[in-house]
Amino acid sequence: MLGGIALAVVLVVAGITWWSVRDDGDATTESPAAPGSQIDSLADPSVAKVGDPAPDFELTTLDGATLRLSDLRGTPVVLNFWASWCTPCRAEFPVLRAADRAADGEYAVVGVNTRDIRSDAKGFAKDEHATWENGFDPDRAVAKAYGVAQLPQTFFIRADGTIAQRTFAELDEKAMQRGLAQAR
Predict the structure, then answer these.
(1) N or C end: fewer C-beta atoms under 10 angstroms in the chain?
(2) C-alpha 33: how far from its chain's center?
(3) What pTM was estimated for this model as a whole?
(4) Does the N-terminal peptide bond of residue 152 adopt cis geometry, omega within 30 degrees of 0?
(5) How many C-beta atoms lie closer than 10 Å to residue 174's C-beta?
């Protein structure tokens, strides 16, 4: 009897784990967040949503320069929130690197490092050959303005400064191309 109860508990835990990590292939804002979820910040009227103007920000980059989103107005932007400790963030860096190489002035790739240690972020960006600008968000002000509760997240911003698409998961090539098509 005790073995049956233990087996039932294991099956329930396995089912919950599978459900929480499964990939349905479409993690964009086209599907609204479930009430009470960690991404339910979309219900907060002060948080940027698809169709809204992207909140402007000014951050110091990992290299010490100043990064302002408004300086990129007139150019579509791929705005990626990441951290060096985030495994899916690490996995998507090759996609971002390829997108940055292919941009050829048609769009800009911009990273926002948040919930991280500056030296870890700088080391990781260097190791991964991140040639795009990466701002450091030490107090999470930018992440909060965009409603970023989990990492990674990517916003595709049109040249007019409005948010075209939001992706709540690790980017792959297909998601990158879909987002860029929406932003252009």
Answers:
(1) N
(2) 15
(3) 0.78
(4) yes
(5) 10
Using one digit for the tens of pLDDT, what is the confidence trace for 4-34? 554 454 444 444 433 333 333 344 443 333 3
Q: Rounded to whole angstroms, how far apart are CA atoms 106 and 34?
A: 35
Tokens of 81: 């929130």
What residues contact residue 164 under an 8 Å CB cut-off, 6+ apart?
A: 50, 76, 156, 157, 158, 179, 182, 183
Closest CA to 152 of 90, 60, 73, 68: 90
Sequence-ordered strand ranges (E) for the chain: 58-61, 66-68, 77-82, 108-114, 133-137, 153-157, 163-167
Closest CA to 156 of 145, 164, 144: 164
Q: What is 86-109 written as a DSSP string?
A: -HHHHHHHHHHHHHHHH-TTS-EE
Classify residue 65 as exposed, middle or buried by CB count within 10 Å of its CB (0-12, 13-18, 19+).
exposed
User: Taking a C-beta distance cutoff of 8 angstroms, is the pair 147, 45 a contact?
Assistant: no
Give the mean pLDDT of 125-139. 96
